[in-house]
Amino acid sequence: MIVDSHCHLDYFLRDGDLAETLDRARDAGIGCMVTIGTKISTFETIQSIAEAHDDIYCTVGVHPHEAGTEGLDSPDILIEKAQHAKVIGLGESGLDYYYDHAPRAEQAKSFRAHIVAARETGLPLVVHTRDADDDTVSIMRDEYEKGAYPALIHCFTAGPDLAKAALEMGFYISLSGVITFKSAEQIRQTVAEAPLDRLLIETDSPYLAPIPFRGKRNEPAYVRHTAEALANVKNVSLSQIHSATTDNFYRLFTKAKRPTTD
């Protein structure tokens, strides 16, 4: 069994081929998928996808790109939505200075509101960070000093300092198809030093398709290629990667119900 810990299934619903996409994922051995919230205004769609399938869960949150229009200054709505049985995490939230689609102050404020919700609910926060390592670490540490909270750095593309800081706070790191790219040698070096019991895998589909599908639409079935790349980086068997990343997922996302047979 493999888990795709981060995908955006609403895109496949919009494209009209969600059912076929899920069939391909299941045929590839993907036993659980998490469809990620990016806006409160579209959360009902995310939740409905999770409700319709036993092997799909969801998160609720506001992406940093949306912080200018839907950013949060209070954790209340996240805490409320998190009571639903299918909501197993918060986010994705964080900082994105690459695109700067939202004012940085608004991104930071919304990020902190998500962290408070994670602390209050005990649900893990899915952290998005791009070209913002220093500020991401600063906010995570500042909030951690106020009280521990669970978190995951999703689609890890940052440097070793952010990885070290996240691991020191007990957070997890998730690898996407980026780890298969020729240009990702620094990421592979950082991941090689990270403990296997803190790593997850994801697609971030429909984005970031791994080699050999780079440039095409990504989908949950392709997470197996990320698993293969991670096995090479860690110099362990593919079955060990499947087992470890699945165990790690259910250890972090405690609301998700593990199938009785993987």
TrEMBL record:
Pfam families: TatD_DNase
Single Gene Ontology MF annotation: hydrolase activity
InterPro entries for the chain: DNase_TatD-rel_CS, Metal_Hydrolase, TatD-like, TatD/YcfH-like
Keyword terms of this UniProt record: Hydrolase, Metal-binding
Superkingdom as given in the UniProt entry: Bacteria
Cleaved signal peptide residues: none
Family: Belongs to the metallo-dependent hydrolases superfamily. TatD-type hydrolase family.
Full protein name: TatD family hydrolase
Organism per entry: Kiloniella laminariae
